[in-house]
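User: Show me a protein chain along with its predicted structure.
Assistant: Here is one chain, sequence first, then structure tokens.
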Amino acid sequence: MEIWSAFVLLSKTRLWKQLGIWVIVQNYNSILTLSHLYRSSDALLVHENDAVHKICAKLMNIKQISFSDINQVLAHQLGSVFQPTYSVEGLCHYRRNPLGDLMENLVPHPEFKMLGIRNIPQMSENSLAYSTFTWAGLLKHLRQMLISNSKMEEGIDWQVRPPLSRLPTLGKASLNRELQFNTSIANLVILRGKDVHSADLGGFKDPALYTSWLKPINAFNVWKTQRAFSKYEKSAALVSNSQFLLKPLDTIVGKAWNMFASKAYIHQYTKFGLEEEDFLDSFTLLEQVVASYCNL
């Protein structure tokens, strides 16, 4: 079983501008890497570099963001998922196969492997000293982050609501129309901290949040532990198999296609043994991924 954690590198990312030619071909690198991992892995935990950068700047109040700061946010996200949790409600035995449980909970179909992580709360230590949290407030914000596809709690679009019907609509398969609601295949919420068993998770069991071919009872799971995580008295993480990466991935594929059509920088790859067929195979696979998620 293989679960990979991967970056999606977008062209506006500040940290990469200093790397010259690498920035120009980053869309090539992204499609080649993601397509290879998609073929060889059971699931991908995908981090958008721009989103992590914004968390550092806006939530952590970091002025000069370094790779160490980026890595610290990523470590926090991964730790919030893979630190031990109880295997059964109310018992003191920790789950022994979290990767297997993650796959069972979130990847019901091998065509859908993209997993995203959201955390709440996430803030600097100075802000944490003056903050208090309730499970109702944390879960209300986390649910809205999910359905509005917000990567952090600052700037959540509270106008986005689940559709009244989960039936497919005309034009839904087109990315030319703004996709506001983030449809899920499956969601896993991990709760850590005080009074964790009193948290009400009913909002995540709403059938309107999920694709029509999977029942909510099979699409939503929760892991819990009363042990606090990273100085937060209460904290929640959400791992979601949803449309969260749809527009960024479509943008990356489109930009890479435009460069490929003009043969731009192809020689940088062919001189190391890659062929144009390798690019075409990557485009074919990722375009199928985009189409599959778009049609949820």
